[in-house]
Structure formats: C-alpha cells, structure tokens
Design a protein that fits this description.
By secondary structure, this protein is mainly alpha-helical. It has eleven helices and no strands. The mean pLDDT is 78.
C-alpha cells in the first residue's frame, strides 16, 4: 500500500499547483532550460542507440553464421529463440538509454534550474507547514555543500556502475540483472535530488539524507520509481522535473517531516521563544 501511495505523489502535484497558481512563476524558466537541454540530449543518445543496435546486429549475424557452419540442422529450431533474445536485448538497450537520458536530464536540468526550484520548494513548504526552516551557513559554505553533494552522488553512481558492470558479466541473466541495478541506482539518485531542497535547508549530512530515504520505505521506493518513470518518458520529461521537485517537497511535508523533524523543530521553536 505504501509503495503505491508513494507512486502517486508526482500526480498529486497537479492539484497543488492548480490550487496555488502563484507557484507556476518558478516553473516557467526551468521548463525553457529543460526543453533546450532535452532536445540536445535526446539527439545525442538517439545516435548512440542506433550505433549500439548496429553493433549488436552485426555481432548476432556473426554468431548465426558460426552456428550455421557447426550445427546447420539444429539452427532452424533455435533461430526463433535467438531472434527473440536479440529483440529483447535491443529493447533493453533502448530502455536503458531512456533511463540514462531521463537521469541526465534530471541531474543537469535540476542543477541549472536549482535557483527557481529552491524558491518553489520554500513557497510550498511554507504553504503546507505554515513555516519555513532554514539553517543559514553563508554563501561559501552553501557552495561547498552543493559541490560535495554532487561529488558524493558521482561516487555513489560510480559504485553502482561497477556493480552493474560486474553483474553484466554473469552468464544468461547478467544483462537483466544489470538493468535492475541500473534502474535501482538511478531511482535512488533521482529520489535524492527531488527530496533535497527541504533536506538541504536543514543542512543534513549526505548519509542522513540517504538514511531518510531508506527509513521512508516503501513509500520512498514508490516515489523514486514514479519520478524516474516521469523523467524517462521522452518529451514528457521536458516538463515533469519541476513537478517532481514539487512532489518531493510534498512528500517531505506529509511523510518525512511529521516522523523525523516535527517534534525536534517544535521544541527548538519553544526554546527560542522563551529565550527571546
């Protein structure tokens, strides 16, 4: 049940934005950025995908020629199976390229649109919680934290890439398992990005941000997969990133804040009120 509830969060943002049209102001410029970036990205990956399919087709043709020389009588019986495997691998490559394109678009588009997304998240948190929590650390520290966050994501991505590559070497089921690793890792990183605005305002460590995602399972898994699907659909993903940012803040306000932050922040507010 929790997984499916998490899966619905990106869809719920349409209602939020319809009720608060003032938030749309912070979506227009990121949309222009995403559309421009998406056109360039898909053009490059489309060429890469076509080249990969051609290489795989030539490889399969060579194998069929070898089998035809060695087992000509058996080949007609196994040829339909080989064709099905080839068809499956082609669509698996295309699926992975769509996931990669959506992931890159969310990463780069999110980075370029972060000033507007931050304001969008702040406005939404204020609307939903009636207050806004920000721990000021200074501009230089903000830049350092942003760079550290991106570097740690890269390290995490490299780790999962190595695991996926090693898994891909396994016979028979290596490629499907590698695809599962790839989708799981990109879902996790996508979830990190869309949860980050309210978490970063509280200056949480990277490990705490990851921990909150795992502590919010299976809700966060549903949200992560839904967000990855939305940012992986060609053309649609040119406009869905701002909605996923909105969904991440909505998820935080409804699921993460009451469980992990509400009591502590209310106590801190009371202490500050008495001190003043």
């Amino acid at each position: 049940m929790g997984f499916f509830k998490g899966f619905t969060y990106p869809l719920r943002t349409f209602k939020i934005l319809r009720e608060s049209p003032g938030l749309l102001v912070y979506i227009i410029i990121p949309l222009i950025i995403n559309i421009s970036l998406g056109i360039l990205l898909y053009w490059q990956l489309l060429n890469l995908g076509n080249d990969s399919v051609d290489i795989l087709r030539n490889y399969a043709h060579d194998w069929i020629e070898i089998l035809n020389r060695r087992i000509p009588k058996v080949l007609p019986y196994i040829l339909p199976v080989l064709k099905f495997i080839f068809f499956l691998y082609i669509w698996l490559i295309r699926l992975l390229l769509l996931v990669i394109a959506g992931f890159l678009l969310s990463q780069v588009g999110g980075l370029l649109g972060s000033p507007w997304y931050s304001i969008l998240s702040e406005k939404l948190e204020t609307k939903l919680l009636g207050k806004l929590a920000i721990q000021e650390v200074g501009l230089l520290q903000d830049i350092k934290r942003a760079l550290a966050f991106e570097l740690k994501k890269i390290v995490l991505l490299i780790t999962f890439t190595i695991i996926g590559f090693a898994t891909n070497l396994l016979p028979a089921f290596g490629t499907p398992l590698a695809a599962v690793v790839g989708i799981s890792s990109t879902s996790l990183l996508t979830c990190l990005d869309f949860f980050d605005p309210p978490l970063e305002r509280r200056r949480l460590k990277f490990r705490r941000k990851l921990l909150l995602i795992f502590q919010s399972l299976p809700l966060s898994a549903g949200f992560a997969l839904a967000s990855l699907v939305w940012v992986s659909i060609p053309l649609v993903n040119l406009v869905t990133i701002p909605f996923c940012v909105t969904a991440g803040t909505l998820f935080f306000c409804e699921e993460i804040y009451p469980r992990f932050f509400q009591v502590q922040e209310e106590m801190e507010a009371e202490v500050n009120k008495e001190a003043n």
